[in-house]
Automatic annotation (TrEMBL):
Source organism per UniProt: Litchfieldella anticariensis (strain DSM 16096 / CECT 5854 / CIP 108499 / LMG 22089 / FP35) (Halomonas anticariensis)
One GO molecular-function entry: N-acylneuraminate cytidylyltransferase activity
Domain of life according to the entry: Bacteria
CDD domains: CMP-NeuAc_Synthase (cd02513)
Pfam families, per database record: CTP_transf_3 (PF02348)
InterPro entries in alphabetical order: CMP-NeuNAc_synthase (IPR050793), Cytidylyl_trans (IPR003329), Nucleotide-diphossugar_trans (IPR029044), PseF (IPR020039)
Name the UniProt record assigns to this protein: Pseudaminic acid cytidylyltransferase
Length: 231
């Protein structure tokens, strides 16, 4: 059995009620629930939340909410690893066993069912603990600059000032969509970003962090453009 766990606490600060705010016609969390369902990867889709309204909307869109997330795992400082560990432990305490667990973010409307299937395949065909979504940086990170306290600029890596962009190693970052993992890895809270993880590469045009209202607006523009293109 494979399980999707969607963390969705109620106390988002930068965009209040972000997990259930309407995004392109549906509550944000609905896009993640539908992608999980349409992937065919999961016997159970569980939302981990401390919030009654989020729980109700998750039920409406076809997810389970079989427990209430403890308050100590629903504050501003609770990390993803202990939240997923709590959910995995709860499921095991009910006498169920499973092959793999996917942490799927509630704020990932760009996630595609085929990406989830690919992630599961990457995990199953490797000896990795995790398989998670990544995407490439649009600009070489070796040529990044910072703003100095005196109002000037400085390179983070000045040794690459004369290096051609095409000669620099491509860099990737977490796409913030999903994290497949083995149950024992989640229970041990093993770090996701390490040698025991394998990447699932997502095109840049299907990745967008949504942390501010400006991010939200840009994400809706991009999402609608992708829908029109697919149509």
């Amino acid at each position: 059995m494979n399980v999707a766990i969607i963390p969705a606490r109620g106390g988002s600060k930068r965009i209040p009620r972000k997990n259930i705010k309407v995004f392109c016609g549906k509550p944000m969390i609905a896009w993640s629930i539908e992608a999980a369902r349409d992937s065919g990867c999961f016997e159970r889709i569980i939302v981990s939340t401390d919030d009654e309204e989020i729980a109700g909307i998750a039920h409406q869109w076809g997810a389970e909410v079989p427990f209430v997330r403890p308050a100590e795992l629903a504050n501003d400082y609770a990390g993803t690893l202990p939240v997923i560990r709590h959910a995995v432990t709860w499921i095991q305490d009910q006498g169920q066993t499973f092959e793999a667990v996917c942490c799927l973010y509630a704020t990932a409307p760009f996630v595609q069912p085929e990406d989830l299937r690919h992630g599961l395949e990457c995990l199953e065909t490797s000896d990795a603990d995790y398989a998670f979504s990544v995407t490439s940086y649009a600009f070489p990170i070796q040529r990044a600059i910072r703003l100095t306290p005196d109002g000037r600029v400085a390179m983070f890596h000045p040794e690459h000032y004369h290096t051609r962009s095409q000669d620099l190693e491509e860099a990737f970052h977490d796409a913030g969509q999903f994290y497949w993992g083995r149950a024992d890895a989640w229970l041990a809270e093993k770090p996701v970003f390490g040698h025991d993880s394998t990447p699932v590469v997502i095109p840049r045009h299907r990745v967008q962090d949504i942390d501010t209202l400006e991010d939200w607006q840009r994400a809706e523009w991009l999402f609608r453009a992708l829908q029109e293109d697919n149509a």
